[in-house]
Specification:
The protein has 216 residues and is of the alpha+beta class. The chain has 4 helices and 9 strands; from the N terminus they run H-H-E-E-E-E-E-H-H-E-E-E-E. Helix 1 packs across helix 2. The radius of gyration is 18 Å and the shape is globular.
Length: 216
């Protein structure tokens, strides 16, 4: 398993521990085993979808690039964007974006209206499920962040798709394994069509603005 998998494994473990913290008979071995099995499941899903995703990128993208085995995401840069790269060591940004989400068969399951970008007070809302119903999948994390973040003088790899991350004016298209989308469940965004279980997703994301968020 790669480092990002270990990181997500830690998050899963913490969630399980917090859920069980009120119990005196917490079985940490069972928690660890459940976490291990979940990682195996996601790893197998990525492997099963890898060739289909690669073939789609080769057929549909003009200049496809592979991110890493850790993510399994293919992408292409449609516009480099302008301005300075966002400093993720300070805080998460607030973003304004135009985007389109599609399935492999061409079905559009979510899309901003022309001239009306989607605004997020914290870009974490796109990849962390909240009561606001803005969740678009963990792939948005990899799309926005840089390849690594400097923490106290040490470069820590976070597996962003681009060396410096997305900037104002950046436009990117990506295809992600379902584990970084809506994973092993049916999902629906707003009034859009249902997204079947284990569906790879294609996103086109254009950054209208990106700046320091007012909330965490």
């Amino acid at each position: 398993m790669k480092n990002i998998t270990k990181f997500l494994m830690g998050l899963l473990c913490l969630g399980m521990i917090f859920t069980s913290c009120s119990k005196d008979d917490t079985d940490y071995n069972a928690i660890e085993e459940k976490m291990r099995q979940e990682l195996i499941r996601k790893y197998k899903t990525k492997k099963q979808q890898a060739q289909e995703i690669k073939d789609y990128a080769a057929a549909k993208f003009t200049n496809p690039k592979f991110s890493s085995d850790s993510t399994g995401i293919w992408y292409e840069v449609l516009s480099e964007g302008t301005g300075e790269a966002y400093d993720y060591t300070a805080s998460a940004p607030k973003i304004s974006v135009n985007y389109k989400g599609e399935l492999l068969n061409g079905t559009i399951f979510a899309q901003t209206k022309e001239g009306t970008p989607a605004n997020y007070s914290n870009f974490g809302y796109t990849y962390t499920e909240t009561t606001q119903g803005q969740f678009l999948g963990n792939c948005w994390f990899f799309a926005f962040v840089p390849e690594s973040i400097n923490s106290n003088g040490v470069e820590k790899k976070v597996y962003g798709l681009l060396p410096k991350g997305l900037k104002k004016g950046s436009k990117i298209r990506l295809i992600t394994p379902s584990v970084w989308g809506f994973d092993n469940r049916d999902y629906k965004i707003g009034d859009g069509p249902s997204i079947p279980t284990n569906s790879p997703l294609i996103y086109t994301i254009e950054v209208v603005s990106i700046e320091k968020a007012s909330s965490i």
